[in-house]
Amino acid sequence: MINKFLSIALIIFVLMQLFSCKDDQIKKSNFPNYLKNTQWFVESEVLLHSDGEEVYLLSRRTDSATRFNFQAMDFLDDENFTSYDSWECGNDCFTTVYGRYIFTGVDQVEMQVDSIGQSGTCQSPTQIFKPSKKVVFDISKEKTQLKLTRQ
Question: What is the pTM of this model?
Answer without folding.
Answer: 0.75
